[in-house]
Amino acid sequence: MKIKNTKKEFNRISLQRAIIACLILCSLMICFGTATFTGKQFAASKLSAQPQPTPPNDPLDDDGLQALIEKLTDSLGEVIEDEDTQNSITEKWDARMESLKGKTAKQVTDLLLADVKSIVKDTEAVSKLQESFAAAIADGEPADEPEPVESPEPVESPAPPLVPNINQSVNPALRRIAEEPLTQVQKDIKGKAEMDIFEERTNGVAFTPEEVTYKGLTYTIYKDSTDKDLKVKVAGVKKGLQILIDRKIDTPKGLRVYIGGNDPNARAVALKRDRQFKQVAIVVLGKKTMVPLDVKSISQSKFKNLDKPTITIIHELGHILHERSLGEAFWGKRLQGDADSKQVVKVSFYGIKKREFVAEVFAAWIIGMTFDKDVIKEYYLLGGPQLPK
Ligand SMILES: [Zn+2]
Questions:
Q1: Among 83, 273, 379, 389, whose Cα sits 20 to 30 Å from the Cα of 205?
Q2: 205 burial level (CB within 10 Å; 0-12, 13-18, 19+)
Q3: Residue 229 C-alpha to ligand 1 middle, in angstroms?
Q4: Where are the chain's structural domains?
Q5: How many A from CA of 132 to the centre of ligand 1?
Q6: Are 343 and 375 in contact (CB under 8 A)?
Q7: CA atoms of 32 and 220, how far apart (whole Å)
């Protein structure tokens, strides 16, 4: 009974996602007029671009990877009933996503199954998942997902910047989120998931610490000399922190930024809680931080000539400050899923997920971009940290 409902829920979510993706595509074509083809041509191009299943020993292309992840997510929903456990697993998968590119279906499922095992201790559930993952590789039928579309450059508004404010109509929503405290089990799962990611990326790496103080704020950069982009990342971290502190952002005390690490495919990640669920402020800028993403993000906007690591560190601090502003509510159900697509298209395609939307708006605002009041309203509805004037 429960399993059927979960499956239905997943189907409903998939359908909603497809609709939202279509809405984003359509509004882009209408609003920005930058699309080079008409709707009809688009439909035709989709038909001809129908991806073929990838043989199990060949690396997956983007469509194949996407399709496989969707299947595995469905299987997860069928086997694991507890939503928090599901979410902890998919959060780990999200963090791993970029590093899955170029891998075979078998390699991808092995890695994702390892994430499951790190969270689920019920051996029966794990072996059920193992079976259904194997079945998912066997019938590698790709999903028909819309192609990613380049996001428009954020518009720098000529009007005086809107002074953001958490108004009274927004506050009750935030209070409701905060009224759902986490259980000890949920805290244990979430804290473990965070620290597992940290340890996976940093264990056994010889980092050289450098303590940096700017205007009274001290933080530490941990440098891995095997990262070929070390210099530009260190400069980016210092520049990003300088911008944040100059804009009077209450930057977390005891911030630790790790550059490099042992995963050659890791991008950037912010860790906010330790295993005891105590607040920490850790950012790991993995070795792939410099490589552009497939979808446009604020970090690669080159706004005011700022480079990717400079904007990335501000985005990651946005995640940490978002967590600080919401506390336990940050980890609750209301921040899962996608932000309002009408606002997302005005910011960046990377910011579809609610928490990413907040971090993207935060980074963009800090470096001087401005947005209309609806974007800012959505940002505060999601509990975004106070933006400076
Ligand atoms: Zn992010």
A1: 273
A2: middle
A3: 20
A4: 2-138, 171-381
A5: 30
A6: yes
A7: 43
